[in-house]
């Protein structure tokens, strides 16, 4: 492949990451983007950028003909698919080759075989790779699936045959749950992958999810680059990954590596791939699936091997040999990665949208931040809510963990709700610190839910001081006084400035009294703090009651402020009127929490419902969200229909409480 120009058929952090390697190799990069992503960082980073359609992915990032037209128009000789979108679409890989371009990935046959969980499992059983008992047949009738489930036994996993990323997947612990699990998994599989075929597998609970990174060239070399432990998962989606696995012995690593290489050889694999296994406590391991692409978590492997996996992908796609043998692969130290998502852990991880008010990634020894966001960028409901990955490497696991905790605190990300504080809490949990986390860790640790963070009085005082200081600086800018020190001067000591603030849905008035340039006395209900400001946005050093503290902040557009304290972040708003707040919070009103597509409406006017009952299902950010009744009563109004696109705040339904159901 005489590739001087590579088109990256993706967006966000992975597009930026791939382009950095393309530039380092002296090659030219082409970005494609939707209309919604016209100002996105990956567009700015590329040597050339081409719009391929409107915001919906079916009209842009999944539009094969538009991507191929962009490749032809830009003169690209190769296409890198990244992960997600079309990366595991055999039809796309085939279309790229038929267009005379090089697809930087495996062959369409390998993608087809391994992309179909049923076909992959049949191939692995034939190749002698250990697999879990299950059903992967072509008969997809409910009767057959129910009978096979009884044969396999409970608990079991229902999985989309064409799936990945935790979508189209359900854990079934009781027989009564199976019919609904089949229906939900089918619907999600059809919506996400365009294929509703399912497989069944015996569930191994509290196991470890261990995956092996494999690489193969066209000259007969196939090897593995060690493993990653991806056991910390929520709803079958990875949250934290690390390499190497804390409990793997050299002997077990070699055995699992051989099995993974055998899996790759079975389909004549080319390039980077990942073979995923469940590792039981007794050391038994079972094939789960093979991802025929670069993984989200590939940086931890890069940090412990010193290899650039994207550069290797490009090299083998050109036809070059790997020039590596298995004995050349050495694992140096430990690396851990966390994924920062736009989501609200206190609201059952509901995806969040908004505009990024400030983004400033951490820097330091052993720290890497892969991101595809920038200050002032809008977080759209059309795409996956992954914002950035923070990775730390160290000589030991504990050093890597401590560096990662520090990096989370030092990474400024304000303006949209994220899971950063939750990630820091996971890293500090005793089971994680000890390396004992399994796939049941998050459910077992956070089964009762995650409470919302609350700012303490010092943090509230810091926010108030920053707000009034911003106002004072604006006044100084507009003032005609010859001496700024005279601003706010009064012979009687001055009057305290009242601020009506709202935090976490509750509001109160605080008072700010100027004590000199950059110095404020902030008083609230039952507290008072002396605050001195020592720096400017997005990072601020403050002296609160004589104690030095660090914060990050950004002003919003309505006189409020975003404040980050450590890894915790808050939005301090101007308080709304109580009448407005009361109306918005009516218990019987159910509204759309974010823009999305109504997948189903499960109730009708006049129907009695119980608190917690599903009223409708909304699809947003590639996930389905069940909207539930906040109270028991009678449905008095239904305002949406299936297939309707709604905005955040759209009324879904109203429930009137009754004496018999109250």
Rounded to the nearest angstrom, the distance between the terminal CA atoms is 70 Å
* Domains, number: 6
How many H/I helices?
17
Query: How many runs of DSSP E, i.e. beta strands?
Result: 39
Q: What is the structural class?
A: alpha+beta
Mean pLDDT over the residues: 90
Largest sheet: 8 strands, antiparallel
The main sheet orders its strands as 14-13-10-11-12-15-22-20
CATH first level of the largest domain: Alpha Beta
Helix content: 25-40%
CATH topology (level 3) name of the largest domain: D-amino Acid Aminotransferase, Chain A, domain 1
**Percent of sequence in beta strands:** 25-35%
Question: What sort of overall outline do the alpha carbons produce when their principal axes are compared?
Answer: globular
Rg from Cα? 27 Å
CATH superfamily of the largest domain: ATP-grasp fold, B domain
Please tell me the CATH architecture of the largest domain by its name: 2-Layer Sandwich
- Low-confidence segments, given as residue ranges, are 486-493, 576-586
């Amino acid at each position: 492949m005489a590739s001087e120009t590579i088109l990256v058929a993706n967006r966000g952090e992975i597009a930026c990451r791939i382009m950095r390697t393309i530039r380092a190799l002296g090659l030219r990069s082409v970005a494609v983007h939707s209309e919604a992503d016209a100002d996105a960082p990956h567009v700015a980073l590329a040597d050339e950028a081409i719009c391929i359609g409107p915001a919906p992915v079916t009209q842009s990032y999944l539009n094969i003909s538009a991507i191929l037209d962009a490749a032809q128009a830009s003169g690209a000789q190769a296409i890198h698919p990244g992960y997600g979108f079309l990366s595991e679409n055999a039809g796309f890989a085939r279309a790229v080759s038929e267009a005379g371009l090089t697809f930087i990935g495996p062959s369409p046959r390998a993608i087809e075989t391994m992309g179909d969980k049923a076909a992959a499992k049949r191939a692995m059983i034939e190749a002698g790779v250990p697999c879990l008992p299950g059903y992967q047949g072509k008969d997809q009738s409910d009767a057959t699936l129910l009978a096979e489930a009884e044969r396999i036994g409970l608990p079991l996993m229902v999985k989309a045959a064409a799936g990945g990323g935790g979508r189209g997947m359900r854990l079934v612990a009781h027989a009564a749950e199976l019919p609904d699990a089949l229906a939900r998994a089918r619907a999600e599989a059809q919506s996400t992958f365009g294929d509703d075929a399912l497989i069944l597998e015996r569930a191994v609970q509290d196991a470890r999810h261990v995956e092996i990174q494999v690489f193969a060239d066209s000259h007969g070399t196939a090897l593995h680059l060690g493993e990653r432990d991806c056991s910390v998962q929520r709803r079958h989606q990875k949250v934290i990954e690390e390499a190497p696995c804390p409990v793997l012995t050299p002997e077990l690593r070699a055995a699992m590596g051989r099995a993974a290489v055998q899996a790759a050889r079975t389909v004549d694999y080319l390039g980077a791939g990942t073979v995923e296994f469940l590792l039981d406590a007794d050391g038994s391991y079972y094939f789960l699936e093979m991802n025929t692409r670069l993984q989200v978590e590939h940086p931890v492997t890069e940090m412990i091997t010193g290899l650039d996996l994207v550069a290797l992908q490009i090299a083998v796609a050109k036809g070059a040999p790997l020039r590596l043998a298995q004995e050349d692969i050495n694992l140096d130290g430990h690396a851990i990665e966390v994924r920062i998502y736009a989501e609200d852990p206190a609201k059952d991880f509901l995806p969040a949208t908004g505009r990024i008010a400030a983004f400033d990634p951490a820097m330091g020894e052993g720290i890497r931040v892969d991101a595809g966001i920038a200050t002032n960028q809008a977080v759209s409901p059309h795409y996956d809510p992954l914002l950035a990955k923070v990775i730390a490497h160290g000589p030991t696991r504990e050093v890597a963990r401590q560096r990662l905790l520090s990096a989370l605190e030092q990474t400024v990300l304000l303006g949209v709700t994220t899971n950063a504080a939750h990630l820091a809490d996971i890293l500090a949990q005793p089971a994680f610190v000890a390396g004992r986390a399994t796939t049941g860790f998050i459910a077992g640790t956070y089964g009762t839910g995650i409470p919302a963070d609350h700012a303490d009085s010092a943090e509230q005082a810091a926010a108030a001081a920053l707000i009034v200081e911003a106002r004072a600086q604006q006044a100084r800018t507009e003032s005609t006084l010859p001496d700024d020190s005279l601003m706010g001067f009064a012979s009687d000591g001055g009057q305290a400035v009242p601020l009506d603030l709202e935090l976490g849905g509750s509001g109160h008035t605080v008072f700010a009294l100027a004590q000199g340039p950059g110095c404020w006395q902030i008083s609230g209900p039952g507290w008072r703090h002396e605050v001195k400001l020592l720096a400017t946005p997005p990072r601020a050093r403050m002296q609160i009651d004589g104690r030095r503290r660090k914060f990050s902040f950004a002003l919003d557009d309505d006189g409020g402020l975003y404040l980050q304290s450590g890894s915790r972040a808050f939005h301090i708003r101007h308080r709304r009127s109580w009448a407005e707040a009361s109306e918005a919070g009516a218990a019987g009103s159910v509204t759309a929490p974010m823009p999305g597509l109504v997948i189903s409406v499960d109730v009708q006017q006049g129907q009695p419902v119980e608190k917690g009952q599903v009223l409708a299902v909304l699809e947003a950010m590639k996930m389905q969200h069940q909207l539930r009744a906040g109270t028991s009563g009678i449905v008095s109004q239904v305002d949406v229909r299936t297939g309707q696109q709604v905005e955040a705040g759209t009324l879904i339904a109203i429930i009137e409480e009754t004496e018999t159901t109250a």
